Amino acid sequence: FSSQVATVTEYGAFIKIPGCRRQGLVHRTHMSSCRVDKPSEIVDVGDKVWVKLIGKEMKDDKLKLSLSMKVVNQGTGKDLDPNNVSLDQDERKKRMFRDYTSQKITLEAVLNTVCKKCGCKGHFAKECFVQPGGTKYSLIPEEEEEEVATAGCERGKKTSLSEDPSRKRKK
């Protein structure tokens, strides 16, 4: 239906619904098929726009109406999405997104294994590339393991890492 913009906020625009005292919200994601950062760049108070009712919600005994401008041709008022296909796709995209940043990937099980073929740490026998009599490859040890190994060797020499200026510690 054709309606008029009542107010513009940073998250969308409230639209006066004709023949009704209520207003509906056109969220900035439903203003255009392109990204809208500032709704005030798209509409101003008093502008005539074509909108489509896409949802209603009862919250705290108040009816909240969701409207969309991007599924309606703003020149003719023709519904561009009569079967609500694009709205269903948008909802599916929102539901499918999951945040996996809190889950860390650990490779301890693989790193702590010893190859039965070559005897090196960090890979399985089926992933081993060593040929009979060939070069053996293993993982580079972590800094902590390297420091422990070098400290153990240097105790016999009675020197430490902090006393030797030629060795620098990496953090």
TrEMBL record:
| Keywords tagged on the record | Acetylation, Metal-binding, Nucleus, Phosphoprotein, Ribonucleoprotein, Zinc, Zinc-finger
The molecular function GO annotations come to: RNA binding; zinc ion binding
Q: What is this protein called?
A: Zinc finger CCHC domain-containing protein 17
Q: Does the keyword Zinc apply?
A: yes
Annotated compartments: Nucleus, Nucleolus
Checking PROSITE patterns in the record gives: S1 (PS50126), ZF_CCHC (PS50158)
- Which residue ranges are recorded for the region named Disordered? 148-171
Tell me the Gene Ontology biological-process terms attached to this UniProt entry. RNA stabilization
Recorded superkingdom = Eukaryota
Q: How does it assemble?
A: Interacts with PNN. Associates with the 60S ribosomal subunit.
The CCHC-type domain sits at 115-128
Q: Where is the S1 motif domain?
A: 1-70
Cite the record's Basic and acidic residues compositional bias ranges.
154-171
Spell out the GO cellular component terms annotated for this protein, sorted alphabetically and separated by semicolons: nucleolus; ribonucleoprotein complex
Where does the UniProt entry say this protein principally localizes? nucleus
